[in-house]
Amino acid sequence: MKPLNLLRMVAVILALLVVGCGGKNVASSLPNGGIVYNKYNVHSFMDRKDIKASYANWVEVSSGQTVFPPNTKFQVAKWKRGFVLTKVDGGQTIHYEYDAKRMGMSVDDYIKLITSPTPVKLSGLSKLDQQGIREGKALKGMSKEGVKTALGYPAAHTTPSLSDNKWTYWRNRFKTMVVNFDASGKVVSVQ
Fold this sequence. Notes:
Distance between the termini: 67 Å
Number of strands: 11
Strand content: 25-35%
Number of helices: 5
Largest sheet: 8 strands, mixed
Helix content: 10-25%
Structural class: alpha+beta
């Protein structure tokens, strides 16, 4: 075999090995062997045969949607369009779509942002915040932390800064919802 052909073959094999590693657990970049707890509700829906979620959140609570509450225990793995969360108790698998360009951070950084290696404490949130989290909705009077926990971390391409008093979420793939806060960080309206 000619040296040039051998080099090409080695390059192809290496490329296939790198691409083939895309479905493995991200345990090397996460503590606890890739076991995490979500900090915020994960709004998901059934899309043909898969449960899907998105960095855009798709927060319209409707039939066919499942909301996984904070502190659900998941195993994390890579997926070509984002990552996969598999519920440790029950085995449901969520294909979580992610766009690094729109969020301005890597998928690994995003996973670390929305998850925790240990359960998160919600006891510091108000009763109204906790109600909104249970319902998966933004309610008038909720705090920014309560809304973030109820609806998820807002997508950076629609809400560039959490210090803004207007957070935009996606109801679904086509419609948005705006949560407006007053100067003290409490919800005044949801449009």
